[in-house]
Write the structure tokens for this entry.
Amino acid sequence: MKVNTTTLQPCILVILYMTLSMVAGNRCSKSLSRIVRQQVKERLLPHYEEFKMKMPDSCPLSPNRDVYMMQEEKVFIESSSRYKCNVCGKAFISQFYIDMHFDNRHPDYIAEGENTICYADYCDITRCDIVSGQKTPDFWDISLCLEDDMTELKERCEGILDQCMPDGLTRKEKEELYRYLHGSVCHFLTCKLYYDGPKKQVCHVKDLNNIQVRLS
């Protein structure tokens, strides 16, 4: 019996698309990871630089543990419509296509090991949807916010910060660094502050002084 390949082609494409979608669904989101990575770079790392320290690898947010860091370092953004792969030299018109390129052609540029982390897993404490501007809260978002949920989220955030204290600092310096880090991330995990956009992400000195330091 002769098979009509023309008829089969659409079916094959649908199956392929579904397969790729399922595989992608089980992976670390690159777009969300990018938002968290930017938050780490802009809001956390500068505090370590002030103390002439680096974020320790014990910290779950350490760039050294980022599963996609090798890929990100090999992407050169020439303009908003030209993304160049510094591994092979090919260029693409968007982040989406160069991400696909790395998935297909350079899968070895994904970090492996027990200590690697997916930044997207920390979207809850870094408020990805809010700080990226992807979501504008409405009346019900704010009204239905539960402080118990925020308290649980803040405790998770503080537990992460406990792992982010570098060696070589005095007790006083650690407490000061902790307050700055807390004021950059965990401080906003309340119903009152959670929905503050990027322009309002300021923790005032009086608020920093009120942060309870819980270092061991």
Remarks:
- The mean pLDDT is 85.
- Residues 70 and 109 are 6 Å apart (CA to CA).
- Residues 28-67+111-188 form one domain.
- The first strand starts at residue 75 and ends at 79.
